[in-house]
Amino acid sequence: MKGTIAVLPGDGIGPEVIREASGILKAVEERFGHNFTLKYADIGAAAIVSTGNPFPESTEEICRSSDAILFGAIGALEYDNNPSATVRPEEGLLRMRMTLGLYANIRPVTTYDALISLSPLKEARIRNVDFVVYRELTGGIYFGKPSFVTDDYTEAVDTCTYNRNEITRVAQLAFEAAGKRTGKLTLVDKANVLSTSRLWRKTVQDMSAGYPEIKLEFMFVDNAAMQMILNPAQFDVILTENMFGDIITDEASVITGSIGLMPSASVGETVSLFEPIHGSYPQAAGKNSANPMASILSLAMMMEHSFGLAEESRTVREAVTEVIARGIVTEDLNPEKFFTTTEVGSAISDIILSKSLAE
Ligand code: IPM
Ligand code: MN
Q1: d(CA 317, ligand 1 centre) in Å
Q2: DSSP letter (8 states) at residue 139
Q3: How far is residue 334's CA from residue 235's CA, in Å, rounded to a whole number?
Q4: Which domains does the chain have, with CATH numbers?
Q5: Is 11 a catalytic residue?
Q6: CB of residue 72 inside a 6 A radius of ligand 1
Q7: From the CA of 104, how far away is ligand 1's center (Å)?
Q8: Distance 243 CA to ligand 2 centre (A)
Q9: Position in ligand 1 atom list of the atom nearest CA 242
Q10: Digits of tens for pLDDT over the chain (359 positions)?
């Protein structure tokens, strides 16, 4: 198979983890006889430096003309500590999500046997946890209008808006996903307080008549945050709005073992984007210490979603599982005994290639 992938390494540890993911892509090409063309483009702080724009038109053009997008991370300390910056790297990611219509962010939460004992959570609670979060990605308070802070910094406003269409399209994907899994869907909202959450609840309730085989449950987000630690195995598919999804998936990463392990797919109207859920972690940038697995697993999601390459996707996931089992992991997973970003990437790549030799 031939394909074109837009590669957007971004800021902080982004370039390092994306380098390893592209190494894995090479291994996949070699083993399975594919040929992907990579088109690199700037986004975030790097793009602000080169063009003044965190999502330049040239980058948008490359994204639109590709079959899939691989994204690293965005964000830089000089902006985090400067609330009055007029342009922010994160705007690049948000504009890209909006412009490309990437309305559903799919974040799977799985556990690895070899990591269960390293988790700060009790083993019995996290064994067999396997759920997926459908996070709405182009609405809500992230994109609310108006949104401003007054010139004298005495007051600020953010607005949270949703309409039925925005809820329906992501909910539809979540219902369908639940149908292919154990058939349980949990809507996480704050319908006891927020109007937008009541719209979510009503819309999803109305839709559930069309999915009689799906068991629909509702949970307030504060309770969901607690349940995720107390009894995460109760979840199958979680559907939630943009900001709640951002927060609970960072929390869910603790179940998996590290945020450095959590991939995601952002899908919608046209081309899909694959992004680790972690941020740019600027403190670790350039140190060859970041965990490349979230990016590599995002690539695995891309193989399946965008190219229909299920075996390739499974091979990458199995190679990651194998490397974890062998203890070849970065510091976030095992501070006692750890390997570098490049060592972990190479170990995964070697497994993918050695399997091909064995055949
Ligand atoms: C994520 C990130 C982004 C978000 C940031 C970098 C804007 O935290 O993908 O979860 O909040 O969506
Ligand atoms: Mn986040």
Answers
A1: 24
A2: S
A3: 27
A4: 1-106+262-359 (3.40.718.10), 120-256 (3.40.718.10)
A5: no
A6: no
A7: 13
A8: 9
A9: 12
A10: 999 999 999 999 999 999 999 999 999 999 999 999 999 999 999 999 999 999 999 999 999 999 999 999 999 999 988 988 999 999 999 999 999 999 999 999 999 999 998 888 999 999 999 999 999 999 999 999 999 999 999 999 999 999 999 999 999 999 999 999 999 999 999 999 999 999 999 999 999 999 999 999 999 999 999 999 999 999 999 999 999 999 999 999 999 999 999 999 999 999 999 999 999 999 999 999 999 999 999 999 999 999 999 999 999 999 999 999 999 999 999 999 999 999 999 999 999 999 655 44
Active site residue 222: yes
Active site residue 246: yes
DSSP state of 120: S
Angstrom distances, CA of residue 230 to CA of 30, 63, 125, 226, 243: 44, 41, 7, 6, 22
Residues 13 and 275: their CA atoms lie apart, in Å, by 13
Give the CA radius of gyration of the chain.
20
- The verdict on the CB of residue 279 being under 6 Å from ligand 1 is yes
